Amino acid sequence: MYWKKNVNGYFWHENAIAIHVALMQALDEIDPNEAEQEELKIWLLKQKQTQDWGSTTATSEAITALVMKGSSWADEKGMTQINWGGSEVQPEQQESGTGYFRQELDAKEITPEHQRVTVRKEGKGIAWGALYYQYSEVMDNIKENTNALQVSKKLLRVATTPTGSELQDIDPQHPLERGEKVTVRLVVKTDRDMEFVHLKDARPSCLEATDELSKCVWKEKICYYQSNKDASMNFFFNFLPKGTYVFEYTSVVTRSGSYSEGPATIQCLYAPEFTSHTAGNKIFVK
Prior knowledge:
Elements: H1 16-30, H2 34-50, H3 56-68, E1 80-84, E2 87-88, E3 117-121, E4 149-161, E5 164-169, E6 181-190, E7 194-202, E8 207-209, E9 215-219, E10 222-228, E11 232-240, E12 243-253, E13 257-261, E14 264-268, E15 275-277, E16 281-285
Antiparallel strand pairs: 1-2, 1-3, 4-5, 4-6, 6-12, 7-11, 7-14, 8-12, 9-10, 10-11, 13-16, 14-15
Helix pairs in contact: 1-2, 1-3
């Protein structure tokens, strides 16, 4: 439960978290309703999953609301039961208060049954987690992966026309040539506001970015820091609001041959479970 129009403003007292807590207190004073307070507390935690609460004042007020309003989640004895691969997960050690734990399996221990995970939460409050599968793969064979935070990538040839220049799809039947310019287009989608997001585009070794200097950029109504490295172009976002964004940069083809085009990867560093990447590919240059 939340107020859609309650967003951060310019001044310190327009913090959305602090206003949310103030409204919780008002509702509790006027007409106490534990079920409503529980839903309002869940929104506070879901905001904290991908964002900073904004200030020490808002943080202290949010923690006070989580502890003092509704039922006491800290006193709940109910456990979160996780069945993975046909057996119940038994954590060796859990963090006091939050119940956080992490468990790893070696590749040899993973079976087809581990594709299925069931979670059951007992008692009040909420629980969430994430499952990661890490492995090594040839770059060309990487498959696209998406979730709430998505990125897609496309290489476009910069073609000269009588009216100027235009972007054209790269036809496999007509490979690139040395000296040509290529525009890399990255489309990012997110279904919620996120903070501290990193977008990394791995370039093939035959391309050199025309913009070598790192800099702050204002585009798509957001501000971000763009940093060019030897093998990648990096974009750092302090704040990435819900929506769809298009980012582009230009490179020059410098050498002939066949090259692996690395994937573009995006991740919310505040909540690493929100990550995705594009597929691997190959490009050919005469």
